[in-house]
Specification:
With 134 residues, the protein is of the alpha+beta class. It is built from 4 helices and 6 strands. A 6-stranded mixed sheet has the order 3-4-5-2-1-6, sandwiched between helices.
Length: 134
Amino acid sequence: MQLRTFLNDLSAWSESRSDVLGLALVGSHARGAARPCSDVDVIVLCEDPLKLADSDGWIARFGDPLKKMTETYGVVRVVRVFYGGGLEVEFGLSPVDWADVPLDAGTRRVISEGMRILYDPKGLLRSAEIAAAA
């Protein structure tokens, strides 16, 4: 699966869910520095990151998941998925307050290192982006 197709599918999925309040591409792909072997990093602002992390059905919407690993970084529950075809995605499932201003140091770092907003109906990610740039 190509990155553009994946991001379009992920954006459509985010828009279809009432519990997802924001989506952003972060990391090397967001800053235009990705290499062929780079994984895809996304932040998913959601009402219940733990519930979403424990559910496997949604990850299969984006390809054939060969392996899934879960990690925690602060308030972010990361679901790393290795898809058939070589796509590796790090879904950063984050509570809505991850984007609260004033930003904590971890959020500021992630945003400052590159963020491309894909879905932000309430402007939460945009507000965080402005705060990180200040």
